Amino acid sequence: MNLKVGQNIIPSINFIATSMPDDLTDLEKVRYIYINLGKLFSYDYRIVADESVISKPLDYADNEISRYQTCYQISEVLTVLINGLVPTCHAKVIERKINGRSFNKEHVATEVTFKDNLKILLDLTLDLSNIQAGLRTKEFGFTTNSNNDYDIISLRECEETDKKLGFIADKYTDDYIDEFKRILNNTGFSGKSKAEILDFKIRKIKESLAKDFKGEHEAIRYINTLFNKILTNEELSCLKQFNLSYENTDELNFMAIFSFDELGLYYSYSNELGFNKINASTVTNLLKSGWKTNSTSIQTIFDKDITKNTR
Known about the structure:
Helix content: 25-40%
Strand content: 15-25%
CATH architecture of the largest domain: Roll
Radius of gyration: 21 Å
Largest sheet: 4 strands, antiparallel
CATH class of the largest domain: Alpha Beta
Distance between the termini: 25 Å
Number of domains: 2
Number of strands: 9
Shape: globular
CATH topology of the largest domain: C8orf32 fold
Number of helices: 11
Order of helices and strands: HHEEHEEEHHHHHHEEEEHH
Low-confidence stretches: 304-311
Structural class: alpha+beta
């Protein structure tokens, strides 16, 4: 394997395994593994162009694991760590049906059974963005299936554990978002146009609530969380998101375009450049310079005849 600097997460996994405190309950140990592992991974966007990455096996003998993985590899690593570090628990990878999933193979997650027969469902892949943003997790014993096979872990218990483990000092990012929204609601916008108000909100969001992420997938999910929590329904009705990709012999790069076309406002996000305000011509130039999209509706906004990418 030829991993770039910082992409091999084996050293960090070893740190998780050797630094776990001794005075923890089994549930707290599983939480410790879950949160720390969630700080390392990023969803492998190559799956959009090549579904075979789903079945890519992990070769532990190489002593190299890339941070970019799918639900299959992420769930496997989580399962291996839980079984190895919490031997009184039994973890296994299970299929979990996700509505709207367009890939041939089902989504997978992790089932954990404790010695007292507590059984919970963990879906670390879907929680990566929440963990890296400091939000409350939504997939750690938070739900069950149609047969009610799984127990539920309360948000209060998760919060108490996170404080004990030092993951939060006082508040989650959710709480800071709520505070930010209250301040914003008390801001006077008299004399400002709808575009000026929206651009002000988005600039303040970037200034006050920016986070660092391991990959585009997690960052884009967080941006959408912020928009949904902070922007008005009228503002959200103007939003369209387009995903662009750029492929060369070495890697596959992604960029999200957030278009509020009715208000003449456009923004982009990529891991390399972060979140930026752009103009419509920027997107047109990107599409001329090798960036591709699977969207045909993008041409109605950027006046560009885009041939659908059918790789």
